[in-house]
Amino acid sequence: MRVNYKKELEEAARNMILVHKPHTLIRMILRTIVRKVKIEHAGTLLYEKTRNSYIVTITRGQVGAKLPAGFIRLDPDAPIIRFFRHKEAYLSFFEDGALILSRVNYLLQKKELFHNDPETEKLLIAIKFQMKSFDAVVSVPCYFQNDLLGVLMLGEKVSKKCFKDEEIDFFIALANDVAMALRNAFLFEDLQLEIERNKRLFFETTMALAAAIDAKDHYTRGHTSRVTEYSLAIAKLIAADANGRSDDKFFEELHIASMLHDIGKIGVPESILNKNGPLTEEERKKINEHSLIGATILGPIKNLDGVILGIKHHHERHDGRGYPEGLGGEAIPYVARIISVADSFDAMTTDRPYRKAFTRDYAIVELERCSGSQFHPQIVKAAVTLYKRGELK
Predict the structure, then answer these.
(1) Which phi and psi angles does 42 have, rounded to 5°?
(2) Which of 91, 154, 290, 298 is the most exposed place for a label (fewest CB within 10 A)?
(3) Looking at the DSSP assignment, which residues form a beta bridge with residue 39?
(4) Cα(207)–Cα(209) distance, rounded to whole angstroms?
(5) pLDDT per residue over 62-93, tens digit each?
(6) What is the mean pLDDT of the chain?
(7) Strand 147-154's sheet: what is its strand order?
């Protein structure tokens, strides 16, 4: 039966964003590759910072064909690792982002290619023997930005047939998703640890997650930090006007929720986030899922109930016509009501793929116009006061 690789890739990507443990994530991906493409075995070389090495972490496939986890460790100068870490230097030998053993063998037969480049010939020879030692016919790198997080090492197909182009493309696309998911999984591990150990470091990790969100959406760089700044300023003004003591727990939850309010966009394709034009109904539906995805992602982390509610409901409307649950009025969590106003103000005053930024004066008029329908009147009032004081920039 023919495999629908696009469908498999989408399914894998959906599942990956919900996995917070790197080793669980890798097992899931290798299982997908072995079963869907029917290869004899698959393994991963995963970078361990403390040892500055790439280590065989998890393998899947036929008994006897697999390498034991932890059995092999490669330093950054090992041939395969050096090739992928400095891929620009070998671009002419780079096959669509992957090393394919048959391609390496073919190149080495073309001696004329290396008359003026004996070092590259030596490297390819070393790569050939290293891939054979892994019993691998395809090696696929996993990058986060320019960092090599790991390498997928894939054995032969059970049928002994050559890999098709669409299968190689599937591996490469999957590796890109794996890298992002691995990065996020590592961050989530850190996030849980820091909640338990050190609140200051927890906030630093949260900021790293927020930066990862901004990096995915090219048109909203800085959006997260601005929404956080606006949200906290609005909350402080409301607290001051009420002559009440500030609730440290509430402000902490607001701070974290505003930094992570768009974390669910990790699960939205970049082609939709950065689309240069209006969204279709289906694309808009995908975007609207981000608040629920965000709540699901953070669900397993202890002591974040208030944060999760703020993230889940920051697109609800005061009149009950928002999403995801159509809450209205006082039923909307207070953290979410504040983020809604701050988020909308920044969205209006920022360039989007399909329009230029509105002026701040225009945005304030819009907030006032939608007070009592889309937004909570008290929060709009605070935002307008801050703007008139010059404190909402």
Answers:
(1) -150, 145
(2) 91
(3) 157
(4) 5
(5) 644 455 555 578 888 999 999 888 877 665 66
(6) 81
(7) 73-74, 53-61, 41-48, 147-154, 138-144, 99-100
With b meaning 16 or more CB within 10 Å and e meaning fewer, what string describes 222-254?
ebbbbbbbbbbbbbbbbbeeeeeeeeeeebebb
Between 340 and 164, the higher pLDDT residue: 340
Domains in the chain, ordered, with CATH? 5-181 (3.30.450.40), 198-388 (1.10.3210.10)
Check if the beta carbon of residue 392 is closer than 8 Å to that of residue 375. Answer: no
How long a stretch of residues is the chain?
393
C-alpha angle 335-337-342 in degrees, rounded to nearest 5? 95
Between 65 and 338, the higher pLDDT residue = 338
Report the C-alpha gap between 206 and 31 in whole angstroms: 31
CA distance 323 to 343: 15
**Residues 352-359: contacts with CB under 8 Å, at least 24 apart:** 352/219, 353/219, 353/274, 353/275, 353/276, 353/277, 354/275, 354/276, 354/277, 354/278
Judged by DSSP in three states, 275 sits in coil
Cα–Cα–Cα angle for 35, 11, 21, rounded to 5 degrees: 80
Provide the pLDDT for residue 272.
Answer: 80
- Partners of residue 47 on adjacent β-strands: 54
The tally of CA atoms less than 13 A away on the side-chain side of residue 343 is 23
Q: What is the DSSP letter of 218?
A: G
